[in-house]
Structures are given as C-alpha cells and as structure tokens.
Specification:
By secondary structure, this protein is α/β, with parallel strands linked by helices. Helices cover 39% and strands 17% of the residues. It has a 5-stranded parallel β-sheet. Strands 4-3-5-6 form a 4-stranded parallel β-sheet, with helices on both faces. Strands 10-11 form a two-stranded antiparallel ribbon. The longest helix has 17 residues.
C-alpha cells in the first residue's frame, strides 16, 4: 500500500465505520499547509476534524526574545541575521518604538534575512571585523543545524541568540491537562527525521492515543490519518511510521549528537502559553564563546514576559494549542491579515492563520460556530 494514490486512501477512509466525531491534531505547520492546499478537509468525511496544533516556531517564539533581538540590533554595532519570517513578528510596544525586526531595520539597524545557518557563517566570514548575531528561533529541525554550526567550528565573530524549542513537550502538556482536545495525533515528519519517531511513543504508551508520523504529500498524510482511524476503531494503539522514506529509528544520529554536545535542555517560555518544562534549548558552557547573551550587554526585559501575551483581541495562543480554529479568532480577516498581521500566527508560512488565509479562508467564523466550539 506504500505507493497508493491519495484517491485510494480517501476511499479507504470513507469506507471506515467511524465514530460520530473524530478529532485528529497535526503538530507541524508544513502538514497544515499541505492539508489546506490539497483541500483534504473538504475531501474527508464530515465527522473527521483536522486540528492544527503547536507546529509553528515563529508563532510561539517568546516576545521577550524578539524584543531582545530588536534592542541588540538597534543598540550594538552588529549585523543581526534571522530567518525571514521572524522579521515581521510584532511585539507589544508603543507605536513610536520599533515593533518588529523589520521596523528596526527601517531605523538603521543592519538586519538581514537568511534561510539557513550556513548563510550566517558566510556573512560572518565576509565581515570579519564585525560581530554577526544569528537570532536562531525554531524547533528541532532548524536548531539541529545551528548546533552543527557550533560543533563544526563557527567563525570567532559569529554569535547565536538562541530561541530553540522542542515540539513534543507541548503535546505532552496538552495531554497531561486532561482535556487535550484531540483523539489521534499526526506527528511531525521533519522533527521525527532529526530526533527519531521514538519521541512520540509516549502519546500511545502513556495516553492510549493513536499516533502516526507523516510526510508532506497528501498520500502520506492520508495514510497516517487512515492508520490512526483504524487504531481507534480496532482498539489497537501503536505509533505508525507513514514517512519511512526519511524517518528512521533513532533519527539522524549526527544531528542529535550535535544537539547533545552543544546545548542543554531547559524549561522554556512559549508565547501566550507560558513555561513548558524541558521544552527549550540553551547553549551550554562549552560553547559559551558563541552565546550572544554572554557576549553582549543584556537587553532582556523581565517585563516583556508579563507583556508577552498576544496583543489585545488576538487569540493566537488558542490557535496554537488547537483550542479554536484560526477563523474563530476575534481578529481574523478583520484587523488581522498577512499585510497587517497583529498576531504571529498570521505572519509565518507555518502559522495556521496565514495558511488558512492563503488557502482562501478570508472571513471569521459565524458567532454561532464560535459559541459551539467553546461549548
């Protein structure tokens, strides 16, 4: 069945004797983008709900980290580089101040978008007389290359302002809450490629919830959905690997070694969510010479942690946790859109709000739908 078409997988799903309501959460912005672009929601039986979960690293990057990056770029003679999506994420400051890295760049800060850590290395080597700060926000998939950059020998003038997060602790938090809001889980393919599928076995073993790792084409996603649905029906719970082309036991051992060598796992703040235990990365003492937080004056502001909730009226945190759909946010399609994002979920290509907007959903849900979702 490995090479079966999406149409065949859909036929199999429609043939299942499903419960009245099944909620399947995906934990990857790439998955959500593929689901939306392929129109899978409308192709599935009406009683299957596909819920976007905490799969956008830009969306959960703490406001205090973005604020720190902005201030560092404005107040120090540095080149600051960051993944392109991070430049537009707004923070809660008065309008007279720079509210994003993009705004700081218009005020003269040397801020440059990059697509990979290797570009940060190139920029550092091209500017040997100037410090280059890499604001490295992301999940395991992008944090592992940052770790490799450190282990393999970063230029002396390259420093990392790290805001790395692990994905599985957010799902564990939802499950431990007693009201996770989903009946089955589609685990992230790229994260499992790096870290190994074993990270997600706790979903099945500790909580009895079906889970499957999926790739990014409709065939793989539908195969994972079919697997979890059959598990629900038959009562046989296990972690299925529906992305065997890239996902192997133990993941990428070199990537994991780089993470273990250069970084410590710490408790970490998620924007609008709060502290999640063992969900963050920090550069360890062996590589502290490249830690921007040790090299430069501190621009951390503890008040940012209190102000670091979402902007007034923005429900991005509920969207990230799968508590509401993007179009149930009070600002979706009205004050908040990709040209004028208020919350981070409308900024990133992996943010559920941006994905839904780009997929053609341009209006808020009706008041009745919102009341029903809360109920």
């Amino acid at each position: 069945m490995k090479n079966d078409s999406a149409a065949i997988w859909l036929k199999r799903i429609h043939a299942l004797d499903l419960p009245a309501r099944v909620r399947i959460m995906n934990v990857c912005g790439g998955h959500e983008r593929s689901i939306t672009q392929a129109g899978l929601r409308s192709a599935l039986p009406d009683n299957i709900e596909l819920i976007p979960g905490p799969g956008c690293p830009v969306c959960i990057c703490p406001e205090e980290d973005i604020f720190e990056a902005i201030q560092l770029a404005l107040n120090e003679d540095v080149i600051l580089v960051a993944y392109g999506d991070m430049l537009r994420v707004p923070v809660n400051v008065p309008r007279c101040e720079a509210r994003s890295l993009e705004a700081a760049r218009t005020r003269g800060a040397d801020i440059r978008p990059i697509a990979s850590p290797t570009q940060a290395t190139v920029i550092a080597r091209e500017n040997p007389g100037k410090p280059v700060v890499f604001f490295a926000a992301g999940f395991e998939t992008t944090t592992a290359p940052t770790a490799a950059l450190l282990v393999e020998g970063a230029p002396d003038n390259l420093f990392v302002l790290l805001s790395g997060r692990l994905t599985w602790p957010a799902v564990a938090m939802l499950l431990d809450s007693g009201t996770p809001g989903f009946d089955a889980l589609i685990a992230p393919g790229h994260v499992a490629t790096v870290m190994g599928p074993e990270e997600w076995e706790f979903v099945v073993k500790q909580h009895g919830i079906p889970a499957a790792v999926a790739g990014f084409v409709p065939e793989s996603l539908l195969a994972a959905m079919y697997s979890t649905l059959r598990q629900l029906i038959e009562g046989n719970r296990f972690l299925d690997n529906c992305y065997p082309e890239l996902v192997r036991p133990d993941g990428n051992r070199y990537a994991r070694k780089c993470l273990q060598t250069s970084m410590d796992v710490t408790d970490a703040n998620w924007r609008g969510v709060g502290i999640i235990p063992d969900s963050g990365y920090a550069i360890n003492s062996a590589y502290s010479a490249h830690d921007a937080r040790r090299e430069f004056s501190s621009y951390a502001d503890d008040a940012r942690k209190r102000a670091g909730e979402m902007p007034p009226g923005c429900d991005c945190a509920k969207v990230v946790l799968g508590k509401i759909y993007p179009n149930e946010c009070r600002l979706f399609g009205a004050a908040c859109n990709p040209r004028h994002p208020i919350g981070p979920c409308m900024v990133s290509d992996e943010g559920a709000c941006r994905i839904w907007w780009s997929g053609g959903m341009r209006e808020r849900a009706s008041a009745q739908v919102q009341q029903d979702s809360v109920a």
